[in-house]
Design a protein that fits this description.
Elements lengths: L2 E6 L3 E7 L2 E3 L2 E4 L5 E5 L2 E7 L1 H22 L5 H16 L7 E9 L4 E7 L5 E3 L2 E5 L2 H11 L6 H18 L7 E7 L2 E4 L6
Antiparallel strand pairs: 1-2, 1-10, 2-11, 3-4, 5-6, 6-7, 7-8, 8-9, 11-12
Length: about 200
C-alpha cells in the first residue's frame, strides 16, 4: 500500500513518496526511501511490490549511470522515461514481469524545463503536469485538479503538496505520517524536510 504523487511546474518538479513498507496487515518499515536518483537532475519514485521496486530501480539506476559514463553525458528526463518504459515492456513480455509503478521527475538543462512522466506496471507512459500512484490517487487528484495551474511557482507547488498530505491524513484509512519530498530544478535534486512545509 503505497502513496506517491508529483507536480511539475515550468522550471521545477516536486515528488512525494511515503516511507512505509507494508504487506497485508503488517507494517515492516517506516523509513524506506522509495526514490532513486538517476542523474544530477532526474530521479524516480516507485510504488509496488517491495522486492520488485528495489530490484528494478537499482537495475535502472545502474544502467542510466553506465550510459552517462560511456557517453560522457546524462540522459534527459524524456530519454530516461522512454528507457524505463522499454525495460518494463520487455520484462512484461518475459517470464519475469515487475509489479512497479513509477513517476519519473526531472529537469532538462538544455531546454530549461521540468517534466514528469507517469509509468505503470503495464509499461503505459504519459507526460503529465501532475500524477499519483496507489490508493492516494483517489484523494489527491481532486486537490491537484483544483489547485494546479501551468505557471505555478515552487512555493505554490509546496502548498499543493501540503494540502494533498492533509487530505490523505483526514480522509484515508491508512496513516502515512512520513514522506520523502524531493524537488528538482536547475540547481539539481534536493530533499525538503517535512518540517519545512
Amino acid at each position: 500500500m503505497d502513496a506517491q504523487f508529483a507536480i511539475a511546474g515550468k522550471d521545477f518538479a516536486i515528488s512525494v513518496a511515503d516511507k512505509k513498507v507494508a504487506r497485508s496487515i503488517v507494517t515492516m518499515k517506516h523509513d524506506k526511501d522509495k526514490t532513486y536518483d538517476l542523474t544530477p537532475h532526474t530521479f524516480i519514485s516507485v510504488a509496488g511490490e517491495p522486492g520488485d521496486t528495489d530490484n528494478f530501480s537499482e537495475y535502472i539506476q545502474a544502467n542510466v549511470r553506465l550510459y552517462s559514463i560511456r557517453n560522457s553525458q546524462d540522459l534527459t528526463p524524456s530519454e530516461t522515461a522512454n528507457f524505463i518504459r522499454g525495460e518494463l515492456s520487455s520484462a512484461l513480455r518475459s517470464r519475469r514481469p515487475y509489479q512497479v509503478n513509477i513517476l519519473v521527475t526531472g529537469f532538462d538543462k538544455t531546454t530549461g524545463q521540468a517534466s514528469l512522466y507517469w509509468i505503470d506496471y503495464l509499461s503505459a507512459m504519459a507526460k503529465v503536469p501532475y500524477a499519483a500512484h496507489g490508493y492516494c490517487s483517489y484523494f489527491v487528484y481532486s486537490t491537484m485538479d483544483r489547485e494546479y495551474s501551468p505557471d505555478i511557482t515552487l512555493e505554490k507547488g509546496l502548498e499543493i503538496v501540503k494540502k494533498c498530505m492533509a487530505s490523505l491524513k483526514q480522509r484515508f484509512l491508512v496513516d502515512f505520517s512520513n514522506y520523502t519530498i524531493k524537488v528538482t530544478d536547475k540547481q539539481g535534486i534536493r530533499e525538503i524536510p517535512m518540517s519545512e512545509l
